[in-house]
Amino acid sequence: MNPLDNLAGSIGRGLVAGFAGAAAMTVSSTLEARLRGRAPSTAPARATAKALGIAGFDSDLAQARFNDLAHWGYGTGWGVVRGLFAFAGL
Questions:
Q1: Do 33 and 39 contact (CB within 8 A), yes or no?
Q2: Maximum CA pair distance of the chain?
């Protein structure tokens, strides 16, 4: 088998795993927030905005959209790292 095919497969499996993990975290945190009657977490947006130097958002809706993008991007992105670890035999 071509080593690049193996690398692509490892990354693909990692992406799927990262997406599944982000989905599980989304379900878990959404259920917990509803049960406790609290607002959804804004931690992903705040952390990502700080890392990227974004001072603020034009609206709560813009922050919520950025939060979702950061949450799913972070979770799925770590799946790529997981795939690379698998490819390296770790």
A1: yes
A2: 53
- For residue 71, count CB atoms less than 10 angstroms from its CB and return exposed for 0-12, middle for 13-18, buried for 19 or more: buried
| Number of neighbouring beta carbons within 10 Å of residue 66 | 19
71 Cβ partners below 8 Å, 6+ apart?
22, 25, 26, 44
Q: How confident is the model at residue 1 (pLDDT cuts 50, 70, 90)?
A: low
Q: How much is the pTM?
A: 0.77
Q: Shortest CA distance to 81 belongs to which of 20, 24, 11, 23? A: 11
Nearest CA to 45 out of 59, 65, 30 is that of 65
Could you read off the pLDDT of 15-44 as tens digits, one per residue? 999 999 999 999 999 999 999 999 888 888
